[in-house]
């Protein structure tokens, strides 16, 4: 029995923080897990910038409401879900993901949660588990599933390497160069064919 584990941002939807950086005119918020491997460090950096600019959850959610899945993402996901179980494993937050899940046809997502004050200020974040993508893949394997995984960033490498088949998707030249043994794809058709081959 196979489960395909997919990253969300950069794979199925545009990067939320980059969209928010562009909408708010704060270029420092463009930094993502493609640039910073330490997720806790990255989030502390983001929260400090939000506080400095007096921006809260509502401002971010207003931008997320304007984001659509990447062209072809929903069709890819629908076809993939007809072949095997699919879980999106993301380091994003439930408060960000909900409207995007609606646009993707409500796939299953495992993600984290923000700590938000009554005033709407984002004061912190709670990770579901440590090293969530790798930990989740190992847990799925422990209950009898073979995993296939794909993502674009440093924080996806653990689940990609721990899986029976793992692929980079729309990744950076640096990550691809640092991991030359991992197949790297740019289109949903390529990724779908690779998953089909893995479960054949």
- The CATH first-level class of the domain at 2-12 and 72-111 and 129-199 comes to Alpha Beta
Strand order of the largest sheet: 4-3-2-1-5-6-7
- Tell me the major beta sheet: 7 strands, mixed
Distinct helical segment count = 9
| Element-by-element helix/strand order | EHHHHEHEEHEHEHEH
Low-confidence runs of at least 5 consecutive residues: none
Label the structural class: alpha/beta
- What integer value in Å does the Rg equal? 17 Å
Please, what is the CATH homologous superfamily of the domain at 2-12 and 72-111 and 129-199? HAD superfamily/HAD-like
Q: Tell me the span between the first and last alpha carbons.
A: 11 Å
CATH second-level architecture of the domain at 2-12 and 72-111 and 129-199: 3-Layer(aba) Sandwich
Oligomerization state: single chain
Shape category: globular
Number of DSSP-assigned strands: 7
Helix content estimate: 40-55%
Instruction: Please indicate the percent range of residues in DSSP E strands (runs of 2 or more).
Output: 15-25%
The CATH topology of the domain at 2-12 and 72-111 and 129-199 comes to: Rossmann fold
What's the pLDDT, averaged over the residues?
95
Could you walk me through the main structural features you see in this protein, from its secondary elements to its overall organization?
- This protein is α/β, with parallel strands linked by helices and 200 residues long.
- Helix content is 44%, strand content 20%.
- A 7-stranded mixed sheet has the order 4-3-2-1-5-6-7, with helices on both faces.
- Strand 6, helix 8 and strand 7 (184-185) form a beta-alpha-beta unit.
- It is globular, with a radius of gyration of 17 Å.
């Amino acid at each position: 029995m196979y489960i395909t584990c997919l990253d969300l941002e950069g794979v199925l939807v545009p990067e939320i923080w980059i969209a928010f950086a562009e909408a708010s005119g704060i270029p420092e918020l463009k930094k993502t897990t493609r640039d910073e491997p330490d997720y806790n460090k990255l989030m502390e950096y983001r929260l400090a910038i939000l506080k400095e600019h007096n921006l809260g959850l509502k401002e971010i959610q207003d931008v997320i409401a304007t984001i659509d899945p990447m062209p072809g993402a929903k069709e890819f996901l629908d076809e993939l879900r007809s072949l095997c179980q699919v879980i999106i494993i993301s380091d994003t937050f439930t408060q960000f993901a909900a409207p995007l899940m609606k646009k993707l046809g409500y796939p299953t997502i495992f993600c984290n949660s923000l700590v938000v004050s009554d005033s709407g200020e984002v004061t912190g974040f709670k990770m579901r588990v440590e090293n969530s993508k790798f930990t989740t893949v190992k847990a799925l394997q422990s209950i009898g599933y073979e995993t296939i995984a794909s993502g674009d960033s440093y924080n996806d490498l653990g689940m990609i390497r721990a899986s029976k088949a793992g692929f980079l998707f729309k990744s950076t030249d640096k990550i691809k160069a640092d991991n030359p043994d991992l197949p790297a794809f740019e289109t949903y058709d390529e990724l779908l064919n690779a998953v089909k081959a893995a479960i054949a």
